Hints:
Blueprint: E1 7-9, E2 18-21, E3 27-35, H1 42-59, E4 63-73, H2 79-96, E5 99-107, E6 112-121, E7 137-140, H3 146-154, H4 164-170, H5 175-184, E8 188-191, H6 196-208, E9 211-214, H7 225-230, H8 236-245, E10 249-251, H9 257-264, E11 272-276, H10 278-290, E12 297-303, E13 310-312
Parallel strand pairs: 4-5, 9-13, 10-13
Antiparallel strand pairs: 1-2, 2-3, 3-6, 4-6, 7-11, 7-12, 8-11, 9-12
Helix pairs in contact: 1-2, 5-10, 6-8, 8-9
Amino acid sequence: MKKAEGLLRGIENSEDAAVYRLTDELAIVQTVDFFTPIVNDPCLFGQVAAANSLSDIYAMGADPLTAMNLVMFNPEIGLDVLQEIILGGRDKVEESGAVVVGGHTVEDKEPKYGLSVTGVVHPDKFITNSNAKIGDKLVLTKPIGMGVLATALKGELVEEKDIMGAIDSIRTLNKNASLAMRKVGVNACTDITGFGLLGHLMEMLIGSGVSAVIQSEVIPVFDRVFEFAETGLVPGGAFSNRKYVGNQVKFGQGVNDITQDILFDPQTSGGLLISVSKERCDDLVKELEKENVLIRAVIGQVLEGGAGTIKVI
Ligand code: CO
Ligand code: CO
């Protein structure tokens, strides 16, 4: 067999992870992610980074199997801190049912942490980000606005204990949301990370050759995000995302600048964005509830034409 023949999903459509068929029954799913601390507590940082790294596996409807630590660490910070980051990460890997099987550490002035994760899925059953269908409902499983909160945290305008609701959300695995969508059967899925809600939605729509309308009022946003965004605490990434999406997005008159910034806000370990048929949408919401997924917001609908265009009302 030619090596390339096994590759079911590569880098062609900004897919969340690569899928490679080993046998008719089994494919492996591979992804890697790491970043600089967005919270101060090392254990929380480890948990968030690991949940984020595992997320692309869950977005594809796969199960994580093994994980390897990627650590960039400044020894001046102290080995006990490094230990806590890695233990935090291991917590989440264990919760996912996968195992940590090694890793690699290099010295770097600015610390970074994440995982390379390998998962498994049936080669006919993985969920891509490019199969949204006209008429589908769009369901989001976590609030947005973490980029704004992280900026406030960096600027020491808020402490971790004041935004624990948001931190709890981003350290929550997308595992249960993934199990729920697999049970129901959905058309497409991606997870919301660096490109923000609109950036990741656009990629899904381009890949699927469709457009969408979303309702800004029903999009869940973390507490205090509007307050900070109004004072100008919007991360640079939100502006790059606005540029990236460009004129693919049209805002209705009622959608003010602050709301727009939040829709472009880059997320860390954000929720799943699921495209599900109208008929199965209620079942998905019920199944998410059964799986204790706190947020299950139906934020919009997939429409015909204008591949990749988004109307925000
Ligand atoms: Co992703
Ligand atoms: Co990723």
